[in-house]
Design brief:
The chain is mostly helical. The protein has one domain. It is built from eight helices and no strands. Helix 4 crosses helix 8 (about 150-170) and helix 6 (about 105-120) runs antiparallel to helix 7. It is globular.
Length: about 170
């Protein structure tokens, strides 16, 4: 049963992959695939902390803590499962730094931010994150550094981490 699921996952992931070496869609996928990087999101949150109001400073810190907690959960699962990334050329930095694809840390991070954004931030902020998150996740599959199941399970883990953290953060 698991073998058939993995075959289907590989087949559907390959169908979502962008094969064209260049073009607007590929460039957009590259931008979205990188936009979920922890350093990029972290830099944005540091900017919010630096320039934001007192309320935004608190939200930025809570999001950074959420990113750290999510990273620990994702890394633990990656080390237990050790699923190799799909074969490919793009994303050498990801392939060298982290050869394991399951679950997607990018999808987990972004989904956790959606949950925290919905619980802690203004509605427009949660909406923006909700639009951004699937673009990051699908771009990771389109660029060939993840399988579809990697981003789906990553998103579920991120939602779980966000839901687990939210009561503590809302009690502030």
């Amino acid at each position: 049963m698991i073998h058939r699921l993995l075959e289907a996952d590989t087949r559907y992931s390959a169908q979502l992959r962008l094969a064209a070496p260049d073009g607007l869609l590929r460039r957009a996928a590259i931008v979205f695939a990188h936009s979920g990087d922890s350093w990029f999101v972290g830099a944005g949150l540091l900017g919010v902390w630096w320039l934001g109001s007192a309320a935004w400073k608190v939200i930025a810190i809570e999001f950074i803590v959420g990113i750290a907690v999510t990273a620990v959960v994702v890394l633990t699962v990656k080390l237990l499962v050790r699923r190799r990334r799909p074969a490919g050329e793009w994303g050498a930095i990801y392939r060298k730094a982290d050869p394991h694809s399951f679950p997607s840390g990018h999808a987990a991070r972004m989904a956790m931010l959606v949950v925290l954004g919905a619980g802690l931030g203004p509605l427009w902020f949660a909406g923006a994150l909700l639009l951004w998150t699937p673009l990051v996740a699908l771009a990771r599959v389109a660029m060939g550094v993840h399988y579809l199941s990697d981003v789906l399970v990553g998103a579920l883990l991120g939602i779980g981490v966000g839901l687990a953290m939210l009561p503590f953060l809302m009690a502030r």
